[in-house]
């Protein structure tokens, strides 16, 4: 009986750790230009590399006014390339996508970057969050911004959504156990919704949501 039980338990453990039995979705690994970056000159192409081969559903470039920029897209394995028909203009630009993973799961998202010299930001702008945690941006204008959350966390992800976009822009966050910061580009005026998932020491997870209006 004990041997039979041990065999069942061992089989369960193998099932849990066997990669073939797990369902993994494609994630964005890197991009060029980098998400949230400021670049001196307009890139000729925008390249997005995923964690696995994907099937292209849709891809677009958007200007700082959220207008679609004429472009062409192609995918090769895990790499999506978007080429604008004309040079991108200075200011905020967005590349957004919708792709399908090998397991059939469809994911959408976006990156944003700034071309040229990014203007200085001000004033410090507070976000209304739930639960209520002191959260602020270092400005209230579009462009590159720094988010600060008074949370006892050490890492996390910040997702930003906007009505003009098909998927979220994701920022990577880091912290010192007293506050968390993240830097990125918010390209459009209007209301942005924030969803922060933060991880502290011991694996404690904090989720907070909020909104901010940019001009």
UniProtKB/TrEMBL annotation:
It is found in: Cell envelope. Residues 25-114 form the CopC domain. Keywords: Copper, Metal-binding, Signal. Its main location: other. GO terms for molecular function: copper ion binding. GO terms for cellular component: cell envelope; periplasmic space; plasma membrane. The keyword Transferase does not apply. Gene3D superfamilies: 2.60.40.1220. Pfam families: CopC. The keyword NADP does not apply. InterPro entries: CopC/D (IPR032694), CopC_dom (IPR007348), Cu-Rt/internalin_Ig-like (IPR014755), Ig_E-set (IPR014756). GO terms for biological process: copper ion transport; response to copper ion. PANTHER family: INNER MEMBRANE PROTEIN YEBZ. This is Unannotated protein. It comes from freshwater metagenome.
């Amino acid at each position: 009986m004990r041997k039979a039980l041990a065999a069942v338990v061992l089989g369960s453990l193998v099932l849990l750790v066997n990669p073939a039995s797990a369902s993994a979705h494609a994630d964005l690994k890197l991009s060029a230009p980098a998400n949230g970056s400021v670049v001196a000159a307009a890139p000729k192409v925008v390249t997005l590399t995923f964690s696995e081969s994907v099937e292209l559903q849709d891809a677009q470039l958007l200007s700082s006014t959220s207008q679609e920029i004429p472009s062409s897209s192609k995918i090769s394995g895990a790499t999506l390339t978007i080429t604008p028909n004309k040079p991108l203009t200075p200011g905020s630009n967005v590349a957004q996508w919708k792709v399908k993973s090998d397991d059939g799961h469809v994911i959408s998202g976006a990156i944003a970057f700034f071309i040229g010299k990014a203007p200085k930001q001000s004033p410090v702008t507070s976000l209304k969050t739930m639960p209520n945690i002191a959260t602020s941006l270092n400005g209230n204008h579009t462009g590159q911004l720094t988010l600060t959350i008074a949370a006892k966390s050490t890492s996390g992800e910040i997702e930003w959504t906007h009505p003009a976009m098909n998927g979220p822009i994701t920022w990577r966050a880091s912290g010192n156990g007293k506050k968390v910061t993240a830097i990125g580009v918010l390209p459009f005026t209007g209301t942005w919704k924030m969803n922060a998932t933060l991880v502290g020491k011991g694996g404690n997870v904090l989720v907070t949501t909020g909104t901010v209006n940019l001009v």
